[in-house]
Design a protein that fits this description.
heterodimer; A: alpha+beta; outer membrane lipoprotein receptor (LolB), chain A; Phosphorylase Kinase, domain 1; twelve-stranded mixed β-sheet; six-stranded antiparallel β-sheet; 7 helices; 22 strands; about 35% strand; globular; B: mainly alpha; two-stranded antiparallel ribbon; about 65% helix; transmembrane helix (chain B); transmembrane (chain B); Efflux ABC transporter, permease protein (chain B)
Amino acid sequence: MTPMGRWSIVVAGIAALLAAPFALRALPVDDAGTDAAALLTQVQEAEDHPYSGYVESQGTLQLPVTDGFTDVGALLGEETRMRVWWRGEDRWRVDKLLTTGEVDLVHDDRGTTRWRYAQDDVQRSPDPDIRLPRTADLLPPSVARMLLDDVDAEDVERIEARRVAGIDAPGLRLSPASEQSSIEHVDLWADPDSGVPLRVAVVGKGARTVAFTSEFREFSAATPSAGSVAFRAPPGAEVSFDDVLDIADAANQYAPLVPPASLAGLAKGPQADGAVGVYGAGMTRLLAVPLRDQDAGPLREQLARTPGVREVRRGTVVALGPLGVMLTGGEGDGGWLLAGTVTGDTLVTAARDVTTGTLVRR
Amino acid sequence: MIAVELHQLLRSRRTWVTILMIDSLPTLVAVLLGVTEVGPRPGTGPAFLSAVLTDGTLFPLAAIAIVLPLFMPIAVSIVAGESIAGEAQQGTLRYLLVRPVARTRLLVAKLVSVMVFVLLTLAVVAATAYVTGTLLLGDAPVAATTTVSGTTLTQQELILRTLLALAYAMLSMFGVASIALCLSTFVDAPLGAALGTLAVLVASTLLLTLDAADSIAPYLLTRYWLAFVDLFRDPILWRDVVRGALLQVVYVAVFLGIAWANFATKDVKD
C-alpha cells in the first residue's frame, strides 16, 4: 500500500468517527403535530404516571445560602445527576449520584428515608408540607407539576419537537400570565405516549440563556418494580429519626408567627398552615420564612457579598436569574426570608406586607 | 515479536521501580489512615476512601481511584512514549527493522507491551491494597460489603465487580497508551512523546472543569475515567461505563491508525 493510501484510509476513518455523533443528532425529529392545548392536557393528566430513568439537571443560580439551607445552593447552582424509580407520589426513590458515593431519598407512606454513603448514615423523617427543595424536586415531572399548577391553554404554545432520551418529544412553551413573575417562559418537552415531561428549561425575564434545565437522559414509562423503591438500612449504618427536616420545616413548626393571608397580592396557599407562608402558584410563587437572628445574620452577610445586591428600606434584595431573594431587617435582627420566582418590586411589596401584617401566636 | 517485547519489559529494572513507585502512594495512604484513623471528610477525596475505615476490603478500589487520575497516566505516557522514540534515540530502531519485521507488527507488539505494563501495575496495586486494607484498615463483616446505593454485596459479587473495575481502569489507560505510542512515532525523543501525551491529559482535565466546554466534554479522554464507581451502585449504572469504554476504543482506533500510517511510511534513519 502506498503512503497516500494509508493516510487516506486513516483520514477517512477519523472523519467517519468524528461525523457519527453529528450525523445522529442531525436525524430529523418526528413531531406528532399535537396542538398545544391537547399536549398540555396530556401532560397534566400524566401527573401520576409512573416512570424511571436517569436525569441530569443544571442550575446556574448562585444562591447566597449558608449551611442551614442544606444543599439548596448546589441543587440550583450546579449539575446534579440522578436516578429515579417513581411508582407514584407515595412510593419513589431518587438517587443523587456523586463521584464519591450517593445520597438517596426513598419515599413510602411513612415518610422519607435518606441514605448517605460517605457518611454511612440513614435518616428517617416525616414529609412536611413546608420544606426546602431536595433532589426529587429537580426531576422534570416534579418541576413541571409545580410550574403547571395554574397554567391553562391560553398560556401555552407549541414549540419544535426535540429528541430527549432518544424519544422524539413534542414541545410546549409556557408563559406566565402574571406580570409579577420573574420567569420569561418555561419550555417543556414530553413523552408523546405517556405525557410525562422529559425536559424542562426555565428562562428568566430579560435573560438570553437558560437559568435551569432538567432532562432525562434515559427514560422508561413502565412502572418500576416494588424492589427498586425498597430500602433496608445496611449493617453498621447509623440510623436516626428526625422530626424536623430543615430550617423551613423548623420555622414552620416552631416560630410563633402567623404570616398574612396574602403578600403583594399573592394569596397564601393551603399547604401553609404554620409560620412559613407559600404564596402564589405556578410560575409566580413566593416563599416567606421567618428566621432567628442566628440564622438571619450569616445569610445577611452572604447576601451583602452577592453581586447585584440592593439595600432597600426594609432589607436586602437581590435577583439571581429568575429567582428573587430578599431578607428583611438589619444587623442583629432576625428577619423574613422571601424567595421566589417574582420580580424585585413584588419582593419589596411583600416585605412591607409581611413586616406589617404578621401576627404573633400566643 | 510480542514475546520479545514482553521479555524486555519484565526484565527491565525500570519497569519494577516504576510499579513500586506507583504502588507506594496508596500504601502510604493506607498506613496513614490505619495509624491516624482520620478519613477524608464525607464527599471529599478519592472514591471509597471514606469507606475503607470501616471496610478495608474496599481499599483496592480506593487505590485505583488514587492512582488512576495522575500516577497511572504519567507512567503510561512515559513507557508508551519511549516505545518507538526510545529505540530511535538509542539508534536501535534502524537495526530492529533490518530484521524481517513488519512495522505494523512491531507497533502492535509495543502496544501489547504497554498494556501488560498497565495490567501488571494495576494487579500489584490492587493486591497490595487488599493486603494493606485488610491488615491496617476497617474489618467490617466480610460476608457483606455495602454498595454506594446502600444494598449489600456478597464476597463473590465484590470480587467480580472489583475485577470489572480493574478491567475498566486498564481500558481507560488504552487511550493514553495509544496517544503516547502515536507521538512516539513522530519524534525521536521519548520525553517529547511523554510530554505531548501529558499535555493532552492536562488539557482534557482542565476542559472538564469549564462549563463553556460542556458540549465537547463527552469526547474528552479523561471524561469517564472515574466511572468505575458506577459498578458499585445498585443496580449497576452502565451508562458512563459503556460510554467510557467506547470512547477509549475510538481514541485507540484514531491514534493507532495515525501511528500506523506514519510509522509504516516513515523513513527510519536512526
